[in-house]
Amino acid sequence: MASADTTVSGKFCEGFAWGVATSAYQIEGKWDADGKGKSIWDDFTHTPNHVEDSSNGDVACDSYSKVEEDVKMLKELKVSHYRFSLSWPRIMPTGKADNINKAGVDYYNRLIDALLKNGIQPMVTLYHWDLPSAIEESGGWLSEEIPELFADYADYCFGEFGDRVKLWITINEPQIVAYLGYCVGLHAPGTQDPLTKPYLVSRHLILSHAKSYRVYDSKYRAAQKGKVSLSINSDWAHPAGDGKDPKDAHAAELYMQFTNGWFSDPIFLSGDYPPLMKEAIAKKSKELGSETSRLPVFSEEEKKMIKGSYDFYGLNYYTTRLICDPASNEKATRMHPDLDAGSATDPTWERAGSPWLYIVPWGLRRLLKYVSDRYGKPTIMITENGCSTKHPVGAKEEETLQIEDAQRQNYVKSHIQEVLKAYRDDKVDVQGYFLWSLMDNFEWSAGYTERFGLYHVDFQTGTRTPRKSAECYREIVQKNGF
Ligand code: GBH
Q: Measured at the alpha carbon of residue 107, what is the angle toward residues 444 and 439, in degrees to the nearest 5?
């Protein structure tokens, strides 16, 4: 068994998907062009004090006007796949399927055709956080109506693009939608209601995913033969002290169930929320004087629809945390009042350009093994993994161009090394890896102050320049390993 410090050589499976990833709001720009409807991120960023550098995605990388340039970079990277997302309000300005914006549909058709012409397979995310404002106005993710509306949107996209798109992600990081959108309020729609709304939202996210999956099953699968899943974000929750104290080991497991398991258990295991999570929320609800748990229940019929609604497991990994029993370390942060676990980091861990991003490659191998074991050895596609550099507010583009991005190069190599160990030594069925991101883009509430691109983007001139990490990734891709 290769340890965390050993460098291994070896190849991935034949046909391994090598890709890079982006999302619509983060790159497209042209937020109100050609009949596009508004999204909650247009509204959120156009309201003061939501974004660190007061920026927004109005222009971003202008990918809406740059299909050729985007595809040219992908070709240079020699990737076999490109993961991007569709903007729901660009396709359906009101969020509803009775009103299609043809210009928006044309854009995605041009992109998909250009990719295929260049031998690059699309992986398409239906929802990467840019909910149509019109749907938000009638309750958004809090509304019981949304699974139906989402399934109609998915239905339209499968029908329109599915002759050419064979890999689908319904929802990107549902846990982040529920947590940052409705608990912390750091993401659109900016709601802070930790005890109730995240749970209601999660119910509707899960039902939306499952319903769309079943639409694919019944209407498209036979003819299109594609694969559908979602992208689950997950830190690796490593037990503090390597779990020598069983209380810390328990806290780490609880943390995994509360974050990763919240969405993984229903879809990939049982049709229902993880047992420790259900127990904890019921207990806390009781302590606060309520006989019923704040976590809504799925009906038997819903459970049947949800359970098994996947063709592979999509995993986004960036970082690791040390998790302890809250009583054992007062300095550890509590993520949520219902979650009795403290979260901390190791002072020796190297840090990237985002305050939350500690560089812990071995965490990815542990996480892959955990997911593989808990969910019955599914095929796993790593749909995101990547590293940021800091671009301080007000800095000039030249100052942070950093063509020699040593840290990102190391991040990329060391993480793919750990994926190889998971595949070869731990027998985890990993069949794809998508690096975040193709190019610098709008990093949500951090605006343009954190850069994840293999290509630097000068947001004054629009120029894109490859960093050294682009070359480094291309080498790995071409060798299909090391
Ligand atoms: C991904 O999320 C997203 O899918 C992608 O759009 C994004 O650009 C990329 O990561 C890079 O961030 O602000 O301290 O509360 C990764 C999971 C979850 C990581 C939220 C950052 C913010 C923590 N992200 N987290 S904090």
A: 40
Q: Which atom of ligand 1 is nearest to the CA of 386?
A: 11
Residue 233 Cβ inside 6 Å of ligand 1? The answer reads yes
384 is catalytic: yes
Using the atom order of ligand 1, give the atom closest to the CA of residue 436.
9
Q: d(Cα 67, Cα 46) in Å, to the nearest integer? A: 26
Helix (H, G, I), strand (E, B) or coil at 306: helix
Least Cα distance to 165 among 209, 231, 115 occurs for 115
Among 4, 41, 55, 2, CA closest to 450: 55
Residue 69 a catalytic site member: no
Q: Please, are residues 11 and 431 in contact by the beta-carbon 8 Å criterion?
A: no
Contacts of 417 (CB under 8 A, 6+ apart): 7, 8, 361, 482
Cα–Cα distance for residue pair 255/257, rounded to 1 Å: 5
* Ligand 1, atom 13: closest residue by C-alpha: 356
How far does the centroid of ligand 1 lie from the alpha carbon of residue 150, in Å? Answer: 23
Nearest to 43 by CA among 135, 177, 174: 135
Mean pLDDT value of segment 73-92: 99
Is 343 in contact with 332 (CB distance < 8 Å)?
yes
DSSP calls for 101-133:
-HHHHHHHHHHHHHHHHTT-EEEEEEESS--BH
Nearest Cα residue to atom 22 of ligand 1? 356
Q: Which residues does 85 contact at the CB level (< 8 Å), separation at least 6?
A: 22, 23, 24, 124, 125, 126, 127, 128, 130, 169, 172
**Terminal alpha carbon distance of the chain:** 17
Which residue's alpha carbon is nearest to atom 26 within ligand 1? 356
pLDDT of 480 above 70: yes
Q: Which residues pair with 389 in a beta bridge?
A: 451
pLDDT tens digits for 234-248?
999 999 999 999 999
What pLDDT score was predicted for residue 161?
99
| Mean pLDDT over the full length of the chain | 97
pLDDT in tens, 25-48: 999 999 999 999 999 999 999 999
HEC secondary structure over 324-381 = ECHHHCCCCEECCCCCCCEEECCCCCEECCCCCCEECHHHHHHHHHHHHHHCCCCCEE
Whether 450 and 354 have beta carbons less than 8 Å apart is answered as yes
Q: What is the CATH number of domain 17-479?
A: 3.20.20.80
Protein residue with least CA distance to atom 6, ligand 1:
23
Q: Pick the range with the lowest mean pLDDT from 4-13, 273-282, 316-325.
A: 4-13
Q: Which of 136, 173, 253, 443 is catalytic?
A: 173
Average pLDDT over residues 288-317: 98
Residue 1 has pLDDT above 60, yes or no: no
pTM of the model: 0.98
Tell me how far apart the alpha carbons of residues 451 and 473 are, in angstroms, rounded to a whole number: 17
